[in-house]
Amino acid sequence: MNNEYLKLVYEALSKKIKLTESNSKALRKLYEEVAEELIKQAEKSKGFNKAWLNDYSKVVKNRLKELENNMYFLNKEAIDASSYIAAAIQSNFFQHIGEKFKLDIPKDILRAIYTVPEDVVLKLLSGGLYKDGKGLNERIWSLINKMDKDINYILAKGIVGNKPYLDIIKDLEKYVEPNAKKPWDWRIVYPGVNKQVDYNAQRLLRTALNHAFYLSSMESNKRNPYVESIHWELSSQHYERQVKRFGRDECDDYTEQNRYALGQGNFPKDEVPIPHPQCLCTQYGVVSKSMEDIGKELGDWLAGGSNKMLDEWYASIV
User: Fold this and answer.
1) Whole-prediction pTM value?
2) 3-class DSSP state for residue 232?
3) Does a structural domain hold residue 233?
4) Does residue 50 lie in a domain region?
């Protein structure tokens, strides 16, 4: 395996991890702002009744609509950023070769390799990647709709049960505040209500980031003629997060298979499985040629030498 290429892969993965962490914090902050505003509005009342609940429900819907819009733009920007981080692996690879061997690689080649195809992002936004066909908008709407129903259920149950309004506010705060600890009987008192308000939103964000990176990586790998196959590498956390708690999953099978006779854990460029939600495994291109061999081959070709493979590659990307 070409270690210089692998270094570029791990640098990109490090950037993706930082992107995930920063966006996760931004998402948590969006929920915290909603929680603060909804609690503040509830505390203005001196007591709750059905009439108040109807008015408050309108406040909730308006604020959750803002949250829905903010979540969409946060996810969209994260998807774009993750896509470009993945695409940059291949362009950085060729730039590195050009600098190392003083090759004047045409800009149209670098541009074609780095460009993220529109259909990569559209697949995620429209739901074309998934069996249920649900796009980003629809998934976020489902999360917001569930939150709206949960809030109304907590309030309505408290009012019908003649619960002191201060206790109702405390329960509402426990629900809407992402960091709030729930009592042991939360699921008994409020069956079906989410225990952590932003859990599924965080899950959606991480999955969108991972799938954007995966799709862009797979497309850009196809544009690198020196990538022979795609390797599936288990996350360093795979045993603790998955195997130890729940047993083996499909990722173990992927990393052990050799049904394509390309080496253990390797897949053809167009046969790589889609990572499951929240998958932390890595899929990267396998480059066996050394930088020296690649640099010499590219140098000869750029100087006018005959190379059918590179001629066909150039014609396919520009």
Assistant:
1) 0.92
2) strand
3) no
4) yes
Q: How far is CA 33 from CA 20, 29, 98, 176, 263, in A?
A: 20, 6, 48, 10, 50
Cα separation of 168 and 145, whole Å?
21
| Chain CA centroid to CA 63, Å | 25
**pLDDT in 10s for each residue of the chain, 318 residues:** 799 999 999 999 999 999 999 999 999 999 999 999 999 999 988 778 888 889 999 999 999 999 999 999 999 999 999 999 999 999 999 999 999 999 999 988 888 888 876 777 888 889 888 888 899 999 999 999 999 999 999 999 999 998 998 999 999 999 999 999 999 999 999 999 999 999 999 999 999 999 999 999 999 999 999 999 999 999 988 888 888 888 999 999 999 999 999 999 999 999 999 999 889 899 999 999 999 999 999 999 999 999 999 999 999 988
In a domain, 43, yes or no: yes
Q: How many other CB atoms sit within 10 Å of the CB of residue 86?
A: 28
Q: Is the distance from CB of 282 to CB of 243 less than 8 angstroms? A: no
- CA-wise closest residue to 282 among 254, 263, 248, 241: 254
How far apart are the C-alpha atoms of 181 and 202, rounded to whole Å? 17
Q: Which domain holds residue 53?
A: 3-226
- Count the domains in the chain: 1
Residue 260 resides in a domain: no
- Parallel, antiparallel or unpaired: strands 229-233 and 282-286: antiparallel
Cβ–Cβ < 8 Å for 198, 249: no
